[in-house]
Every structure is written in C-alpha cells, then in structure tokens.
Amino acid sequence: MPSSLVLIAAALLRIPARRVRALALGDEGALRDWIANESATRLAEARRDARVVAERLERLGARVVALGAPSYPAGLRDLRDAPPMLFVRGTLPERTRWREGTAIVGARDADSDALVFARGLARVAPGPIVSGLALGVDAAAHEGALDAGTPTLAYVGHGFGATYPAEHRELEDRIVDAGGAILTESLPDTAVRPYALVRRDRLQAAHAASIVLVASAVDGGAMHALAAAQKLDRPRFALAPRSSVSYAGNERAIREGAIPLSWDVERARASIATLYETPSGVDETP
C-alpha cells in the first residue's frame, strides 16, 4: 500500500487518475513510465507540496483513505472512476458492506413539508444516512440522523478548510463529533466548484444501498445522484410528487423506474426496509 504522501504527490503532479487508482491498489509500476518523464525539479516540488498538504490535513483533523484500504467505502469500488483516495474527517464504518445505508437527496429550496419528511425519514431509515451537506434536504437528512443517533456521512464538493456552504461548518463538526464522517475528493482549502458538486453526487449514490429523492425540479442537482444510482443499478425511491414544479424531478424519476414513496414516514421506511429483508435485497455479508 503506497503512503499518503505518495498518493498526494501523484495528485499534485496531475498523474492520470487510472494510474493513481492502480497505485492506490498497490501497483507501483503503474507510475514508472509517467514519473520517468517528469523532471527532478517537478518531483522534488511535488514531494515538498505533498508534505505541506499532509500537515494541513493533520491540523484539520483529516486523513487520507486510499482505494485499497479496508476502510475505503466498498460501494465506491463499483464506480469505473472510483476516487483513488478520499480525504476524510471522522469515523467510517468498521465493517463496510458492499453497499450500505440510505442516501437522502433533494433540493436546497425544498418546501417545509419536504424538509419535515426528509428529517423524519432520516430518523428511521437504515443507516448510515448519506447526503451532501447542502442547504435544504441534505441538511434536514443529516439533522434527522443526528436526532436519532444514527451515523451520517456527508460527501462534499469542497476541500477541508473551505466548507460549503460556510454556515454548515458547525453541522460538519457535529456530524464528526457524533460518529459520522465528511468525505471529499478535493485537496484541503479547495473552494467548491459546480463540477465538484456533480462529481460528489455519484459518490452518494455509490455508497448507499438505496437512494431517496425527496423533492427536486427536473434540472435540480439531486437528479445527478439519481442518474448515478440508475447506472449503478441501485434501488431508487422518490417521494410521491405534488402538483408543483418543485416535484417535477420526482415525476420524472418515477417514470424512469424509481419506486414512489408515501408521505407517511413509517410507510416510507417500511418500503425501504424491504431491501434488507428479501433474498434479492442488500447483501449483508462482509
């Protein structure tokens, strides 16, 4: 297993991701040809900068989890473009199934009824609760998990030290303090970018055993997570839409095969729980 410094240096050198993935899995030969074409100066700078990044991660209470590490979220390995490494604050499950928990996603500007549903479902749905730390549905899902003492994981599009949105730094800390984790592909102090938000959506979908769309317009960001879940053949649920453009994404998701969920939280929980109770549901073996 390569050291964190080697992986960080590879990222700083912008070595192609497929080579870094191979390195993260222990194939050091994957980098030889690339490094042979790098100047001694560039390599020295990368080593120096990697140490700076590692020290910054330590100050932030974060660490590197490589693709080949036992604690790397197993569901992410289903992705063709699985991150070679993740930067992590907090606690990852000790026993990681091939996929686990419930992803709850939706709009930042969802109405109050949708937020109440998201928070209520997160209190009772199979954990960990996976979301993205955004305003609206994401925050409600994290808060519901915290209410229930269920671990919650946030996949984010920013680097540690640059929390987005800034007002969720306190929520980020509470998630970590309660035994959950914040995970990102971005180097520390990297500001959020739209592309990074889309990229993190696929991680939410890959991590979880199922995904729930609470409320979204057709062009809402949460639809990226639904699309990723569909590609991965993850079970998809969508809250039964109301007659509003705010739920047009739910209508589309259901037309494309998502299972409609009742607005009654207990009935919704029961629908999701069937995944864990049938032979065709989630594989519970380690």
Structure write-up:
A nine-stranded mixed beta sheet has the order 1-2-6-5-4-3-7-8-9, sandwiched between helices. The chain has eleven helices and nine strands. Mean pLDDT is 91; it is low at 278-286. It has helices at 4-12, 17-24, 32-36, 40-59, 112-124, 137-148, 169-177, 194-207, 222-231, 248-255, 265-273, and strands at 62-66, 85-90, 102-105, 129-131, 152-156, 181-184, 210-213, 236-239, 259-261. It is elongated, with a radius of gyration of 19 Å. 41% of the residues lie in helices and 13% in strands. Helix 7 links the parallel strand 5 (152-156) and strand 6. It is α/β, with parallel strands linked by helices and 286 residues long. Helix 5 packs parallel to helix 6 (137-148) and helix 5 (112-124) crosses helix 11 (265-273).
Report Rg: 19 Å
Mean pLDDT: 91
Amino- and carboxy-terminal Cα gap = 21 Å
Helix percent band: 40-55%
Elements, N to C (H/E): HHHHEEEHEHEHEHEHEHEH
Secondary structure layout:
Layout: H1 4-12, H2 17-24, H3 32-36, H4 40-59, E1 62-66, E2 85-90, E3 102-105, H5 112-124, E4 129-131, H6 137-148, E5 152-156, H7 169-177, E6 181-184, H8 194-207, E7 210-213, H9 222-231, E8 236-239, H10 248-255, E9 259-261, H11 265-273
Parallel strand pairs: 3-4, 3-7, 4-5, 5-6, 7-8, 8-9
Antiparallel strand pairs: 1-2, 2-6
Helix pairs in contact: 1-4, 5-6, 5-11, 8-9
